[in-house]
Amino acid sequence: MSNFELMGDHEHYVLPAKSVKSDVRFDVYDYEQIPSTNSIAMLLAMKETKPNICITTRWQTDGRGRMGKHFYSPKGTGLYFTLIYRNDTNIYDALMITPAVACAVASVLEEESGKEMGIKWVNDIYCNGKKVCGILTESSIDFENVKLNHAIIGVGINLTKPKLGFVDEIEDIAGVVFDKPLSPTKKKKLLEKLLLSMDKYLKMLSTCEFMDEYRRRSILIGKEVIVQNGREKFEAKVLGIDNRAGLVVEASGDCKVLQSGEVSIKMPKATKKTKSTKA
């Protein structure tokens, strides 16, 4: 019995379709419901050495985001998938996986929806001021040979709005890519385009050719932000993004380059309205 059979009922298919000219093929294992595509992919990656495996599901009961946060993954309105990426990549280049994937996903969503997609450093995709996609990359490193064993690249996209809306804690920040639901056929085609785009951008890890696009799509450059980096919290202005995806900020007169942390745009303080008096 294979590792996939141990996981329960699923549909297996290969993308892209034979009619699509491509030098890469992805084995897709599609589940109705699992706790987390990343969690399942991590278990499989330890046992299965086959390249280009993709785990996808209709909904996640325990979807995960960065910093241990929960990723809301309701049934039928999103696209939730994880790619097990295997490549003889050095650790230095592997650090560029998340920005590469962010560009890959943003470009496809923009093309398919006709809406402009922006990137909030380092891993969120925004549309019309709302978050529509999150990316979580987890890796296994071979420190002896200083290279990547494999990367678990999770992508969660809000395709359309849930019937009951988003949960209260994300109602104000969550958005959607499409105005109308996508058919199963269109969802599969979208997944195909996303996987092919990810493959294309991941081939640029050593050259970082995508960084100009990453900067162009940034929604933070020039903005006043609040940075949470470990126990440290401070206000800063975003000056730019360097060629290794470091966020360049100015804080208290000093220039810093952030490689990790949480950044939120500082909202302007509301001005109090004064009552007018008639003479």
Automatic annotation (TrEMBL):
Residues 27-206 form the BPL/LPL catalytic domain. Its EC number is 6.3.4.15. InterPro entries: aa-tRNA-synth_II/BPL/LPL, Biotin_CoA_COase_ligase, BPL_LPL_catalytic. The keyword Ligase applies. One of its GO terms (molecular function) is transferase activity. It is an enzyme of class 6 (ligase). It comes from the Bacteria. Keywords: Ligase. The keyword Lipid metabolism does not apply. GO terms for cellular component: cytoplasm. One of its GO terms (biological process) is protein lipoylation. This is Biotin--[acetyl-CoA-carboxylase] ligase. It comes from Candidatus Faeciplasma gallinarum.
